[in-house]
Each structure stands twice: as C-alpha cells, then as structure tokens.
Amino acid sequence: MNTLPGYPLLTGAPLRVLFGALFSALVGALSCAGCSQALPTHDEATGGNPRQGRETIVRYGCGACHTIDGVPNARGLVGPPLAGIGERSYIAGHLPNTAENLMRWIEHPQRFDPQSAMPELGVTQADARDIVAYLLHQP
Ligand code: HEC
C-alpha cells in the first residue's frame, strides 16, 4: 500500500515525458513531410520539376560549394548562398537573371565566365531545368 503514493510519480511523470517526446517526434515528422509535400512537381517558368530538382542538386553535389535552403547538407561557402536567387538582378555578377539564363549558367558556367571558380559539372539540360525549378521554389 505504501507504494501507491509513488505510483503516479514512477509512471505518471515518465509517461508524460515519453508521450511528450513521441508527440514532438510526430509533429516533427509531419511538418517535414509537409515541407516536401509543399514542393510542387511542376514549375511554370522552367517547365521543370522542383521536387525532382532537389534530388538532382544533391546528386551533383552543388551543396559542397553553395548553401541552399531545404537541401540536406548544402552548407558550402565557396560560392554565394542560393537563397532568394530568384530576387537577384544578375547571375554571377553579369548575366541578367532569368530562368533561362540560370539554366544556361548551371549547364556551362565556364562558357560565360572562364575565370569563375564554378566548374563545368556536366549538368544536362533536363537536370538544369529541374534544378532551377527547385531554386525558384526554395522554402
Ligand atoms: C566547386 C564549387 C562549386 C560547385 C560544385 C558549384 N558551384 Fe555554383 N558557383 C560557384 C562559385 C564560386 C560561384 C560564383 C561564380 C561567379 O560569381 O563567378 C557560383 C555561382 C553560382 C550561381 C550564381 C549565383 C549568383 O548569386 O550569382 C548559381 C545559380 C550556381 N552557382 C548554381 C550551382 C548549382 C546548381 C550547382 C550544382 C549543379 C553548383 N552551382 C555547383 C561554385 C560552385
């Protein structure tokens, strides 16, 4: 009987902690799923697939040199951060910033600026389309 007063202490509090942890894990999982669900699969400006584009950015390793919102491990500091790239007036300081020019830059940076530290990565036209679609839809 004298274990009864301890009962709520031993199970009530730890249970509350456990459920609290489960609840935040669930909310975390749901909000993360929400993030990727929010990414459209079609972008008007480029005709590309933003959701696919994020995977493509990971595949080419752009994140080694650029910080890109919403892309896991994209925290590079070699090139400029690509957050808000759609708002910038010029690409790499001199190409007028249009979706078309962004795609051309990503495919062939050295063709536009042989002095640039951004290398030719062999990005295909279709991949550049998806990449730019994502860049214009960053969270
Ligand atoms: C080896 C490092 C490196 C890699 C890898 C790299 N970049 Fe870059 N990138 C740069 C540098 C440096 C610049 C700045 C170029 C300049 O201003 O001449 C740049 C510029 C850019 C710009 C123009 C940014 C601006 O603000 O004007 C975009 C867009 C871009 N990169 C996208 C990409 C994408 C997409 C990938 C992957 C396919 C990629 N980069 C891979 C180094 C890199």
Strand order of the main beta sheet, please?
Answer: 1-2
Low-pLDDT segments, ≥5 res:
22-34
Ions, cofactors and other bound molecules: heme C
- Structural class, judged by helices and strands? mainly alpha
Distance between the termini: 57 Å
The rough form would be described as globular
CATH superfamily of the largest domain: Cupredoxins -  blue copper proteins
Whole-angstrom Rg: 23 Å
Overall mean pLDDT: 84
State the helix count.
Answer: 5
* CATH fold-type name of the largest domain: Immunoglobulin-like
Provide a compact summary of the structure:
With 139 residues, the chain is mainly alpha-helical.
Plain-language structure description:
This protein is an all-alpha fold. It has two domains: 1-38; 50-135, Sandwich (Immunoglobulin-like), CATH 2.60.40.420. Helix content is 49%, strand content 3%. The protein contains five helices and two strands. The chain has helices spanning 6-38, 50-60, 99-107, 109-112, 125-135; strands at 90-91, 95-96. The protein has a two-stranded antiparallel ribbon with strand order 1-2. A hairpin with a 3-residue loop joins strand 1 (90-91) and strand 2 (95-96). Helix 3 (99-107) crosses helix 5 (125-135). The longest helix has 33 residues, at 6-38. The chain is globular, with a radius of gyration of 23 Å. It starts with 5 loop residues before the first helix and ends with a helix. The model is unreliable at 22-34 (pLDDT under 50). Heme C binds at residues 57, 60-62, 64-66, 78-80, 82, 85, 88, 91-93, 102, 105-106, 113, 116-119, 121, 123, 131. Heme C binds next to helix 2 and helix 3.
